[in-house]
Write a structure and sequence with these properties.
Elements lengths: L9 H5 L3 E10 L9 E11 L5 E3 L3 E4 L10 H7 L13 H18 L4 E6 L2 H15 L6 E8 H9 L4 H7 L12 H22 L1 H4 L8
Parallel strand pairs: 1-5, 5-6
Antiparallel strand pairs: 1-2, 2-3, 2-4
Helix pairs in contact: 5-7
């Protein structure tokens, strides 16, 4: 596996000590306490020396439903996941979290950031399932802020007048493949590209404020 290029420390300055990380989950329902987490993917956002944001390669895991979890058939019909598929190569929640959160924690440290901040499309849904899995498994040192997020629904609504991920991606010139949608890796990659596009365009429009650090009380 090729190593990712180093992430530039300027990203810590840009986001007040937070490292943006896109997360997408695919689940067996809407209740993070009852319904199974089935897929999780994350894309760390990095900054080039010229200040342009770009996505790193995704990290992902298929997840075994936790003991006692519920599965809503309507959710499976939507995301087209078969939890019992023999080639899904799913792992238990704790191992899935280790695969995702350990490299994020390392990236937070290497960039000089204080914490990761979850970027998502309807981000609190993803944060809720992540937090529930962390609590169930007793996973230590979750790098994400407990409640703050960057939500691309709001950002895309502001910039493009679109709140649906597929339409926002198309408005941003990123394209969209319906056959790939509702897989955690694809949705995370598209959300990451959308977030970078929005932030980079804002930087081009207002470069002075783009690089202004927080004030004394920020």
């Amino acid at each position: 596996m090729n190593e990712e290029p180093p992430i530039i420390e300027g990203i810590a300055r840009r986001f007040r000590g937070f490292l943006p990380v896109v997360v997408d989950v695919e689940t067996a329902g809407f209740d993070a306490q009852r319904h199974a987490l089935l897929e999780i993917a994350a894309v760390i956002i990095r900054m080039r020396p010229d200040g342009i944001l770009e996505p790193a390669a995704p990290i992902a895991a298929h997840v075994l439903p936790f003991v006692g979890s519920e599965i809503d058939p309507r959710a499976l019909a939507f995301n087209r996941i078969d939890p019992d598929h023999p080639f899904r190569d799913a792992v238990a929640e704790h191992e899935a979290l280790a695969r995702i959160l350990t490299p994020i924690r390392k990236a937070v440290k290497s960039t000089g950031c204080n914490r990761a901040i979850l970027v998502g499309h309807n981000a609190h849904f993803d944060l809720g399932f992540l937090a529930a899995a962390v609590e169930r498994t007793g996973f230590k040192r979750n790098p994400f802020h407990a409640f703050s997020v960057f939500d691309t629904v709001s950002l895309a609504g502001l910039m493009f007048g679109q709140t649906v991920l597929a339409k926002a991606a198309q408005a941003a010139g990123l394209g969209w493949q319906n056959s790939e949608a509702h897989a955690a890796i694809y949705d995370a990659e598209q959300t990451a590209r959308l977030f970078c596009t929005i932030v980079n365009r804002w930087g081009a429009l207002d470069p002075v404020h783009f690089w202004e650090g927080p004030g004394e009380g920020g």
